[in-house]
Amino acid sequence: MPAAQPSARRTDLDLLRILVCGAVILAHALLIFAAEPRYHVKSAEPWAVATVAYEAMRIATLAIFFALAGWSAVASLRRRAAGRYLRDRLARVLLPLVAGILLLGPVIKWIELGQGRDLRIGGFRLVPPPDYGFLEFLPRYLTRLNLMTWSHLWFLAYLFLISLALLPLLQWLARRPLAEAVPGRAVGYAPAALLAGLVAGTGAYWPFLPNLAQDWANLGYFAALFVLGGVLAAWPGLEARLRAEAPGLLALALAGLALVVWCGPSVPGRLGVGLCAWGSTGAALGYAGRHPPPAGKAMAWLGEATMPVYVLHHVPVLALGVLVLPLGWGEPVAVLAIWLPATVVSLVAYRWLVQPWRVPRVLVGMGAARG
Questions:
Q1: 255: alpha, beta or left, given left = phi > 0 and alpha = psi -120 to 50?
Q2: How many other β-carbons are positioned within 10 Å of the β-carbon of residue 108?
Q3: How far is C-alpha 230 from the chain's CA centre?
Q4: How confident is the model at residue 237 (pLDDT cuts 50, 70, 90)?
C-alpha cells in the first residue's frame, strides 16, 4: 500500500483525535461503574461489563494519544526550531495543565470529597464528606498542596515532561529524510513485543496512580509510545505497513485484552497490556489511514475542539455521575445518561465559553483567535 503523503492535511489523524477524545469521555463514565476503586465518584457495586470495557479503552486511548502526540511533535519540529517548539509546549500543554488545576480542580476535588473519597499523590483513602460549603473549601484548595488535584489532566503533565526529555531524539527524527520503504510484516508487529516486555519488566500499568513521583514505570511506557509515534512520522513506509496489517493488529489487540481480563495484575496480564496497546494503535492508524475522511468545516471544528473538550469534560461527567447514581437506573442506561450529556455539555461549553474568547482560548492551549 502506498505511503502517506506528508504534505497533505492528515484528516485520518484528526479523525482519530476526535474519536479518542469521545472514547475518553465514555471511559470516565464507565469508570464510575468499573471495579477500579481509585476514582472521584463510584457506584456501590462494580459492573463487570464496565470493568472490561474501561480496561480496553484505558489501554487503547492512552496508547493512541501518546503515539499521536509523538507523531505531531516530530511533524512540528520539521517546521520550526527547537526554541519555538518549547514555547509551543509551554503554551499548549503546561498552561492548560496549570489552568485546569486552578480553575477546574476545585470543583473536581469538591465532588470527590463530597463522595467521601480522597485521591492524593500518596494514594487513595475514604474520608468523611466535608461539613462546610464550597466557598469555604475554595481558599483551602488554593492554599494547600495536599488538596490540589490534576485529575484527568495528569496526561498533560506526563506529555510535557516526555516532550522535553526526548527533544534531542525528536530533532534527530525530524531531520532525517522520510523513509518511504515499506518494511516486512514482522516489523509491523515488532513494537508489540517491545511494549509487552517493557510493561512486564517494569511492572507498569497496575496499580494506576499517575502522580509522577511514584510512577516511573508508566512514564517509561508512555515515553515508548510517544517515541513510536515519532518513528511513524519519520517512516511513512511503516504507516503503510500498518494499513496493510490493520485486521491482524486488531486481532492482536483483542488477544492482548483477553490476557488482561483473564490474568489481571500479573506478568501475563502486563504482557497483554503491551500487546493490546500496540494492536490498538496500529489498527486505529491502519483503518483510519485506509479510510481518511474528507476535509470539511465539521472535521476542522471538531479537530480544534478536542483539546478544550478533553480539558473540560471531567466536571460534567462527575456532576452527572453524582446526579444519576441515586436514581437507581440500570448500568447501561446510567452510563449513556452520563456519557452523552457530558459530551454535549463539553461541546457547548467549548462553543460558547471558550472558542469566541481570547483568554479562555489561551488557557486551554488553543492560542488567541485568528483575526
A1: alpha
A2: 25
A3: 17
A4: very high
Q: Please confirm whether the linkage preceding 332 is cis (ω < 30° from 0).
A: no
H or E, element range at 126: strand 123-126
Copy the grid coordinates of residue 309.
473538550
**Alpha carbon of 139 to those of 66, 103, 133, 312: distances in Å?**
35, 12, 11, 22
In 3D space, the residue among 196, 189, 195 whose CA is nearest the CA of residue 259 turns out to be 196
Name which of 298, 350, 334, 313 is nearest 21 in CA terms: 313
What is the pTM for the complete model shown? 0.95
What are the domain boundaries of the chain?
A: 11-25+57-298
CA angle 354, 161, 305 (to 5 degrees): 20
Eight-state DSSP code of residue 96: H
Joined grid coordinates for residue 114 = 463530597
Q: Give the three cell numbers for residue 308.
A: 478544550
Q: What is the DSSP string of 30-76?
A: HHTTSS---SSS--SS--HHHHHHHHHHHHHHHHHHHHHHHHHHHHH
Residue type, 185: R
Give the per-residue pLDDT at 120. 87
Of residues 52 and 211, the one with the higher pLDDT is: 52
276: β partners: none
256-277 confidence digits (pLDDT tens): 999 999 999 999 999 999 999 9
Helix axes 216-234, 267-290, angle to 10 degrees: 30
